Amino acid sequence: MKYCDNVNCERSDEPLERISDYRIMDGAVLCIGCAEEMECAYCSNLVTTLDVPGVSDDEMWELLAEEHDPECEWIATRAHVAV
User: Which among 7, 66, 68, 76 is placed 20 to 30 Å from 59, CA to CA?
Assistant: First the structure.
């Protein structure tokens, strides 16, 4: 079970049961309320996930795709240069 790593989070003692309940940022698990947004360098959408999942982690890539533009090259190539 995952919990929010932000010590100031009001929900830090509540389990984050679904993958859509949290983001992994710089190795820390953060609930959606604590996750900070940043602009994707490829599609310019505001996104919350910073860590890059493994190429074969389909569940995380599907979750990431929800935050990016449908034509985002970073998502389409799973952060790898297209061959």
Answer: 7
CA angle, residues 62, 43, 48, in degrees to nearest 5: 55
The span from the CA of 2 to the CA of 4, in Å, is 7
pLDDT tens for each residue of 58-68? 988 888 898 89
Alpha-carbon torsion (17, 21, 23, 29), positive or negative: negative
Closest CA to 18 of 1, 36, 35, 37: 1
Instruction: Supply 20's token pair.
Output: 């859509």
Phi, psi of 12 (to 5 degrees): -65, -20
State the pTM of this model: 0.60
